[in-house]
Request: fold
Amino acid sequence: YQRRVHGEERKVLAFWEKIKAFENQVKMNKDKKQYTFYDGPPFATGTPHYGNLLAGTVKDICTRYASQTGHYVERRFGWDCHGLPIEYEIDKSLNLHTPKEHEKFGIKAYNDECRKIVMRYSGLWKSIVGRFGRWIDFDNDYKTMDLNFMESVWYLFKELYEKKLVYRSSRVMPFSTACGTVLSNFEANSNFKENIPDPSIYVTFPLVSKPEVKIIAWTTTPWTLPSNLALCVNPEFEYLEFKEPKTGELYICGAPHFEEVKKELKIPKDAVIEILAKHKGKDMVGWEYIPLFDYFKTMREQGCFLVISADFVTADTGTGIVHTAPGFGEDDFNVCVKAGIIRPDAPVCPVDESGIFLDSVTDFKGKYIKDADPLIKEHLKKNQRLIMSGTIKHSYPYCWRSETPLIYKAVQAWFIKVTAIKEDLMKNNMKSRWIPPNIQEKRFHNWLHDARDWCFSRNRYWGNPIPIWVSDDYEEIVVVGSIKELQELAGLKDPVKDLHRDYIDHITIPSKKGKGLLHRIPEVFDCWFESGSMPFSACHYPFSTPEEKHKLIFPADFIAEGIDQTRGWFYTLLVLSTAIKNSHCFKNLIVHGLILAEDGKKMSKHLHNYTDPVLLADKVGADAIR
Reply:
C-alpha cells in the first residue's frame, strides 16, 4: 500500500509538471473574471510544518474551486524576510548578545549574514508544498526584502504620517532583553506561559515622620526595587496600623489584605493583635518614606518617595500598597506622570537593552536583572527591610522568538494612533465574511474594541528602515515616501538600489530650518507592519500598480490562516487598510484551528517539534494528510 500510494502520487505530480498543468490552467482563465487571493507570508526560517500545510490545503481547495468556476486566480507565494526570526538565527550563530556587540560587528556585515540565510529554505518549501499537491506560484513570489516591496511600505507610512496617525512617545512597553528590542502588545500577548516561578517578597518602607512605623509592600520583581520612586494606595481602602505581637514591630497594610499579611508574617491565628490606628487611603497620600536604596535619593526634591493615590490598587493580592517603579510598569509610569514626580520623557530606568543594570545602580551594576534578584534580597535582608521571601507561580509573557521572559520597560518609540481609527476598524471588520463567524463577532471584535496604539518601531538591523529623517532636537521631521523623493531631498546623483540600513543610514537631508543635516532615525519597521502592508506592497502600489488597477484586486476575494492570526496578520491587514483607504481588505476569510505537536505545544519551525511531513506523505499519502 505504501509503495502504491507513494508511486501513484509521484506519477500525478510528474504528469502535472510535464504538462505544466498549473501554469496552463492560469493562462486559460486569463480573460475570465478576476478572483483575488492574498497569501500570508511565512518566515523563511525553517521548513513547513503541518500547520503551514493545513493553511495551504484550505487555500488550495478554495482557489482551485474559484478557478474551476470560471475565474482568473493568481496565486503568488509570499515570504516574510525581515525581523527577529532571521536576526535571532544570526545572533545565535555569531554569538552576538548586546547592541554594542552588534555595532562592533557592523550593520553591513550583520545584514549580509541575514541575506545569506533568509531564503535558504525556499527550495525545500517549493518541494514540500508541491509534494502535497498545492498549486501556488513560487516563481512570481513576493518578498518583503525586495526593493519594490520596501518602497511601497515607505509610501504607505508617509500616508499615515500625513494623516497625523504617527507619533513618538515615551511609554512602558513589552521588551525582549534577549533580542534587545521593544515588542508590540499583540506580540507580547501571543506567548504567555503558565506556572512560571518568580520570587514573592514583602519589604518595608519606614515613615520619615515615624521611622518605627513601616509600610509593607509586596512584589514579584525584586530587580525593580532599586528603581522604586513611590508607594501607591487605593484612596477608598482602609489601612491598619498594627503591632506584630512577637517582635513588637509596627506595620501598615490594607484592611482587606490583613489576614494574608498575618499569614505571611507567620502570626498565629489565635494571636491577639493590637490595632493602633486606622487610616483611609486618601489620608495617607503625601506621607514620606525612607527608600530602600540611595541611588536616586536626590529625586525626593521633585516629589519622589512618598505615598500617592491609585485606583489600580486592588483588594485581591499583595498588601494594598503597591511598590511603584515608573520605568518598569505601565500603571506605575502613568500614575507617577499624573502625580508630577517624573517627566514622561525622563523615567528612572537604570537597565540597558540587554537587561543589565547600569552604573547608577552601584551595588548591582553589570548584573543581569534576574541574576540580581537573590543579591537584592540578600541586601534587603542585611538592612532589615525584607520580612518575608518565598516563590509564586503565575502566568507570564515570553518573547515569541527567543522564548525568554519579557520585561516591561520605558522606551522612546514610534506609534500608530490605532485608537483614532478604532470605530472605523470595528465597522470595516463587519464588512467581511468570516468562517466561523463567532471569531469575527466575538474574539476579533473584542480585540479591536480594546485595541491600543501600535508600537511599530524596532531597535534592530535587518528590517525595512523607518523613513524618518530628523534634526538633532527632533523638532524638524521629514518623512520620505519613495526612492525618487529620497534622491531629490538628499541631492543624490547615483540611484538608490537597496533600502536596507547598510545602504541608506549614511544619507543625510539638508535642513530647511537652518538645523544643519537631518539624519535617519535608527529604528526599523516591525515586520508585522510589512506583512500587513502586503495588499499594497506586493504589487508595488502605487508605483507599478496605480490606483485604478489596484481597485481591481482590492479588497481580496479570499484569505485563510490559523486562529492565532486574529492578533497578528488579520489585525495588521485591517489596521493598514482602514488607515489608508478606510476599507476592509478581504471579502471572505476562513479561520482554521491549530495542529499541536505531540507534547501539546504549538508546532513551530523554530522548535522543529514535528515529524517530517514528506516522510509521512510517502508513508500514508498526501491526500490522507490533506
The mean pLDDT is 93. The radius of gyration is 28 Å. The first strand starts at residue 33 and ends at 34.
